[in-house]
Specification:
The complex is a heterodimer. Chain A is mostly helical. Chain A is about 65% helix and about 5% strand. In chain A, strands 1-2 form a two-stranded antiparallel sheet. Chain B is elongated. Chain B is an alpha+beta fold. Classes of the chains: A mainly alpha, B alpha+beta.
Chain lengths: ~110, ~140
């Protein structure tokens, strides 16, 4: 079976986990004056790396950056951050599920289908 | 630092902010705090645990958020409220008693905001916990 899918899923899980850390940081600092929120965007980079090959996916560096679209001094929208957190969690769960299914298939293969 | 630890730092900070607000409201009529004048309302100041620049590694790609921390406890420059009450034991020579000038509406507004922030961090922590639980389920089928 193509190991590429496992690499992509693993990297995406890392990315979502880092995004969740960024959201947690933003919510934690919702009352900090002049705080600039942080974001994690990895989907486009991961898509490009997936086209380049497995090594590109494995060595893809995930980055956290400050939100340039945030107006300085404006409030952190807690509702939007929580919505983002829920979405990140759902995607994470979906990927875990896919990885679990692949592992189940691998188990079936190594077990000779018994 | 993982997401749950980040949310935990915020729960701690917001809890302390609630305590300071409660302290301010409780001492609204304290005329003599420790012998040197009326109670001074306090405001808890918090901020990110470290500057973003400090969190960026030498290679400039990895960064780790570390939550929020209490920066300090500052007295509010609200002045004082003077009430004419010569019978009061803390009245001055002119018969005036000095009370802290507490902005009650501001305290209540901050109380609600703090409570909302606390709830949001609790929710973030719960969602993080769900994510970890899902990860633990990996390969269990």
């Amino acid at each position: 079976m193509d190991p590429m899918v496992t690499f992509i899923i693993s990297k995406a899980l890392d990315g979502l986990s880092m995004r969740y850390q960024a959201i947690a940081q933003n919510i934690a600092n919702a009352t900090s004056p002049n705080y600039r929120p942080v974001r994690v965007d990895f989907e486009n980079d991961l898509r490009r790396a997936a086209e380049a090959g497995p090594d590109a996916v494995r060595h893809l560096a995930l980055t956290m950056r400050q939100d340039t679209g945030h107006v300085p001094g404006s409030e952190i929208r807690l509702d939007l951050e929580i919505a983002e957190a829920a979405q990140t969690s759902m995607r994470y769960a979906a990927l875990i599920d896919m990885l679990g299914r692949r592992m189940a298939i691998n188990r079936a293969i190594t077990g000779g289908g018994q | 630092m993982d997401a749950m630890a980040i949310s935990r730092t915020a729960l701690d900070v917001e809890w302390q902010r609630l305590q300071v607000i409660a302290q301010n409201l409780a001492n609204e009529n304290t005329t003599n705090a420790g012998g040197d004048g009326p109670y001074r309302p306090l405001r808890l100041v918090s901020g990110p645990d470290a500057g973003f620049e400090q969190l960026v590694d030498a290679n400039g790609v990895q960064s780790r958020p570390v939550g929020v921390r209490v920066v300090g406890l500052e007295p509010l420059a609200d002045g004082a409220r003077r009430v004419h009450d010569p019978a009061h034991p803390h009245a001055d020579a002119d018969g005036f008693v000095t009370y802290p000038n507490l902005d009650r509406a501001a305290e209540m507004t901050l109380l609600i905001r703090t409570s909302r922030a606390y709830e949001a961090n609790l929710t973030a922590m719960t969602i993080a916990q769900q994510m970890y639980m899902r990860a633990l389920d990996l390969g269990r089928r």
